[in-house]
Amino acid sequence: MRGRVARTEYGVASWYGPGFYGRITADGTVLKPYSCWVAHKHLPLGTKVRITDLHTGRSVITEVKDRGPYKRGRVVDLTEALARHLGIHERGIARVRVDVLG
Question: ω before 69 within 30° of 0 (cis)?
């Protein structure tokens, strides 16, 4: 999916740790180790987004399934699987670009 970029945000991404596995997201999805989605404070649930790590240039297209992050200054929370895919897992946080696709 290459969709048109409707809007872009920049900020810091973090990721959900294993302590969140089994919890229910805002859209009713159960968080599992291999889940691949993000949490965002105000984008509608189901919104497709492209997350790009500004350090590595790696990106992934996914969707918003939960609310958060609740830590000040963060723009998205990633699942652990997405954090590993983007190379953010070891660093814990990373500067990212969030392209809202529409």
Answer: yes
Distances (CA, A) of 45 to 56, 87, 100: 27, 25, 12
What would the two tokens of residue 64 be? Answer: 């918003």
Residue 33: predicted pLDDT: 85
Q: Which CATH superfamily is domain 5-101 in?
A: RlpA-like domain (2.40.40.10)
pTM of the model: 0.91
DSSP-assigned letters across all residues of 36-73: --EE-SSSPTT-EEEEEETTT--EEEEEEEE----STT
Number of Cβ within a 10 Å radius of residue 41:
13
- Which helix (H) or strand (E) covers residue 72, if one does? none
